[in-house]
Amino acid sequence: MENATKALLIAAAVLIVIIIISLGVYVVGMGNDQMQQGEQALSDLEISSFNATYENYAGSSVAGSRVNSLLKTVFNHNLTESDETRKITVDGDVSLSADAEQQVTVGTGKRYSVVCNPDKNSGLITSITITEVK
Predict the structure, then answer these.
(1) What end-to-end distance do the CA atoms of the chain give, in Å?
(2) Residue 101 phi/psi, 5° resolution?
(3) pLDDT in tens, 10-36
(4) Distance, CA of 81 to CA of 45 (rounded, Å)
């Protein structure tokens, strides 16, 4: 009888340890889910911050001087960016490839339409279309 009591106590202790370990794994899993949600929110904030730099220049009648500022911003970004997928190309009436070696400028007395085109997968602006308004 004494051995049966000890066996039951050992079984109860093992069961309690298994329950405690299961609860620990559950809590850690919940913490990981919260961390991943936090990382995604941070990523969305980074994307909107990155895009805001270029969206400030977007419009249907943008002065040439602002377009020159945009081109300078894009050129400097492409010089410092090592990730090829984050480099920005400019096309339309004004052309600036992602690997351009010199900055392009436009006439300051003209008006331009500037459209920012985000990548469908990442949401980051990867190209900007600039056309002259006549």
Answers:
(1) 101
(2) -95, -10
(3) 999 999 999 999 999 998 888 877 777
(4) 19
Residue 98, token pair as written in the block: 């992602």
CA distance 15 to 78: 60
**Residue 102, pLDDT score:** 74
Residue 98's pLDDT is what? 66
Q: Give the integer Cα–Cα distance in Å for 118 and 129.
A: 11
Task: Strands of the chain (E only): list them.
Answer: 59-63, 89-92, 111-118, 125-133
Instruction: Point out the residues of the chain with pLDDT beneath 50.
Output: none
Distances, alpha carbon 6 to alpha carbons 2, 16, 18, in Å: 6, 15, 18
Instruction: Tell me which residue of 23, 41, 126, 39 sits closest to 77, measured CA to CA.
Output: 126
Q: Which residue has the tokens 């066996």?
A: 7
